[in-house]
Amino acid sequence: MAKDAVATSTKKKRQIPGFSQMQRIGRSLMLPIASLPVAALLMRFGSADVLGADGLAKHASWMQPVADVLAGAGGAIFDNLPLIFALGVAVGYAKKADGSTALAALVGYLTFTGAGTSDKTQGGVLHALAPYFSQKTGVINYGVLGGIVIGLIAAKMYEKYRRTKLPTYLAFFGGRRFVPIVTAAASVVAGVIMAIIYPAFDWLFNKQVGGFIMAHGSNPGTGFVFGTINRLLIPFGLHHLLNSLPWFQLGNCTNAAGETLHGDITCFFSGASGTNAWTGSCMTGFFPIMMFALPGAALAIYHTAKPERKKLTGGVMISVALTAFLTGITEPLEYAFAYVAFPLYLVHALLTGSSLALCNALGIKDGFGFSAGLTDYIINFGRASELSGGPGKVLLLILIGVVYAVIYYVVFRFAITKWNLRTPGREDEGDDTTGRASVFDEAQLAASESTGKADAQKEGRI
């Protein structure tokens, strides 16, 4: 016990300052992101080429109202992503969160956006600051960044004030009821501060970085850098922070109503023709890797397992490979070799970057509402064909995926056998009898910690 305590203490001391907080923020983003698949499904079924005028409605006119309803329902989710992120991040980040956490985030987001309204009739902050920044009258569109900021504020207010006791005559407003009140006050201050710094933020992120993504996002070099860094951050649980920038914030387009939208995913599904030609550049290249390449790696891990462990390893690898192929969830498989064979994982990251670079070079445009698995590939085939200039390029992703599957299989099998890497099924002989967890068990634990599942279980949320 003493040794365990010392080891735990040493582990905590070695942590990079702020690293665990960044991981918590990254994990909290997964809750609002989980709402995207249903939005993507509704949008796709409501599209003109599926149930709309160019699809089933061409043969059955009564389907057009159905398509309109579905498209409107899905569009409502994308239109309110900042609010969804505020609620999701608050609940996902706060420890022992409950309904008052979400209510606080809702109240906070409404006061936050109200404080940044420059309409003269409402006396918003920006109107008063207009002489200093020459900002046009209107409501600031922070995108999901505003939602993330308010979600974190609401979570912190909940953790700090949920047990607050007030004098007897104000006791009704104590405890959890006090959280929305204090969050509203903090959000007004945040709204004022954000409004003041918004011109600089807008210039740096939306106009410069976002403009670069729109102008050069389809550049192979951009895809390579993003894809490589994306995979390298997975072992540290920080990839969600990186993903939220190009997928939900950087780059913009307009929807059919002329409203400005932000981010690769949002513009892929909701962007009007002529304003979203740049979309898909940070998503397309993941399809060959998640659907084909990583299952190829799983096959190599199975073939290199020790004879007495092949049956067990095969069952596990089939499970994680199918999960990656169908849904695009790859963490359980990637964690199986990320730590025990990091040089091999580095090769995986570079190959992922090369896949994004290749798809960008070929002008293939595809996207996903959840991840780059078969489900999203099929659902979004029509939309991808429209943006890619025809179905041929979208079908080419399958051929590219098969090639990458062969590359992964050869590279993984060679590296595992050449350097005797301790991948699942190749553990030392004593592992089963000394109480040590198997490599795959360790990988599952790491994956659950990365996705926030472990924390949610500890707090009783699942």
Descriptive report:
The chain is mainly α. The protein folds into two domains: 16-222, no CATH class; 286-458, no CATH class. 66% of the residues lie in helices and 1% in strands. The protein is built from 22 helices and two strands. It has a two-stranded antiparallel sheet with strand order 1-2. The protein is globular and about 75 Å long. The two termini are 29 Å apart. 48% of the residues are buried. The model is unreliable at 1-13, 131-138 and 432-437 (pLDDT under 50). This is PTS sugar transporter subunit IIA. It is a multi-pass membrane protein. GO terms for molecular function: protein-N(PI)-phosphohistidine-sugar phosphotransferase activity; protein-phosphocysteine-sugar phosphotransferase activity. Residues 16-428 form the PTS EIIC type-1 domain. It is found in: Cell membrane.
Give keywords.
single chain, 462 residues, mainly alpha, 2 domains, 2 strands, protein-N(PI)-phosphohistidine-sugar phosphotransferase activity, cell membrane
